[in-house]
Write a structure and sequence with these properties.
Blueprint lengths: L8 H14 L4 E4 L3 H13 L4 E5 L4 H8 L4 E4 L7 H15 L2 E7 L5 H7 L4 H17 L5 E6 L3 H14 L5 E2 L7 H16 L6 E2 L7 H14 L8 E4 L10 H11 L8 E5 L5 H7 L2 E6 L2 E6 L2 E7 L3 H16 L9 E2 L2
Parallel strand pairs: 1-2, 2-3, 3-4, 4-5, 6-7, 7-13, 8-9, 9-10
Antiparallel strand pairs: 10-11, 11-12
């Protein structure tokens, strides 16, 4: 999701471009005011990826987003005034414009009726809220929507989505909301997404971090690649180091990662620091080095191609990696799961 003021069209489009370059497939922009709603048509038209308008409180902005050319609109039934009474008109407008919707249920804005029933935002409360709102759209024969039931606790979030998956066949958008600072939020998101995606639950994801949105996209891509749901680009295999290491593996791995960060091909590079696992891992990779005694043995596709001094390891790996990438001549494809910014 963008962090710019939506009314600042230039800044918002610039951030969308940065998110797109990072691998984002769909982007969401906030629309809390009339001025934001007025900016939507320009942003939706100029964005290179589909734009979702994020609507809370005011139902009139739902219609503004639909008419403004947004690809989809996220609605939060728990905090849109008299939402249930607006469903028929929203359905008609969305159908007429070919716009899809996301029913976004959040623990922090759960329908008061369900809070009273369950006492708090339990998995059952989140799922019931989502299914109730879905039924309102389905009563009008509108099915072009997906559902999210986000919670800051991965266990609660996982169970809520499992209930939904067992109860119907709706497309599901996954998210651990308010996941926290980058390290904590990454762990929470990876845990929850891994548990659900390996069950086949989830169609789009959004990583929520207290960090720049580009970092959210990077984490999302890495999660999908680790699960085999998006073709991997660069992968650095490096050892955690130990008393056997005879080189500074941490620095080597960081320098190689930085030097190859722009590669867009599925290349596995092994940076190893001892003679126990080093040669084996280096041979298994597309490109690798087994380091020790002030030298590095370079492997390409399992074959030794050179032995260089320690101070030449990084330069040599980067040179060979760029050559291999050029020979491969392809870019990583998109996976089945989209990343929503």
């Amino acid at each position: 999701m963008t962090t710019t003021k939506t009314t600042d069209i230039g800044a918002t489009l610039q951030q969308i471009a940065e998110l797109t370059a990072a691998g984002c497939d769909i982007v969401r922009v906030a629309c809390p005011s009339a001025d934001d709603a007025e900016a939507l048509p320009i942003i939706a038209k100029k964005s290179t990826i589909p734009v979702i308008a994020d609507i809370h409180f005011q139902p009139k902005y739902v219609f503004a987003a639909i008419e403004g050319g947004c690809a989809a609109v996220r609605v939060n039934p728990g905090n849109i005034r008299k939402f249930d009474d607006q469903v028929k008109d929203i359905t008609k407008a969305a159908r007429d414009q070919g716009v899809s919707l996301r029913i976004g249920v959040n623990a922090g804005s759960l329908d008061p009726r369900l809070l009273q029933k369950y006492g708090k935002a339990t998995p059952e409360a989140l799922a019931e809220s989502a299914m109730w709102e879905a039924s309102l759209f389905e009563e009008h024969d509108f099915h072009d929507f997906k559902i999210s039931v986000k919670h800051h606790d991965p266990i609660t979030m996982i169970r809520a989505y499992e209930i939904l998956a067992d109860s119907g066949d709706w497309p599901l958008h996954l998210g651990v909301t308010e996941a926290g600072p980058q390290f904590q939020g990454t762990i929470k998101s990876a845990t929850a997404f891994g548990a659900l995606l390996r069950q086949g639950i989830g169609d789009t994801i959004r990583v929520s971090l207290s960090a720049p949105p580009v970092e959210e996209v990077k984490v999302g891509i890495e999660i999908l690649q680790s699960l085999g749901l998006r073709e991997r680009t660069l992968e650095i295999v490096s050892c955690p180091s130990c008393g056997r290491a005879q080189v500074d593996v941490y620095t080597l791995a960081e320098q190689v990662s930085e030097g190859l960060k722009d590669l867009k091909v599925p290349l596995r590079v092994a940076v190893m620091g001892c003679v126990v696992n080093g040669p084996g891992e280096a041979r298994e990779a597309d490109l690798g080095v087994a380091s020790g005694n002030g030298k590095g043995q370079i492997f390409i596709k399992g074959k030794t191609v050179a032995t260089v001094s320690e101070d030449q390891i990084v330069e040599t790996l980067i040179e060979h990696a760029n050559r291999l990438a050029e020979e491969m001549g392809l870019e990583a494809g998109s996976g089945e799961i989209d990343i929503v910014g």
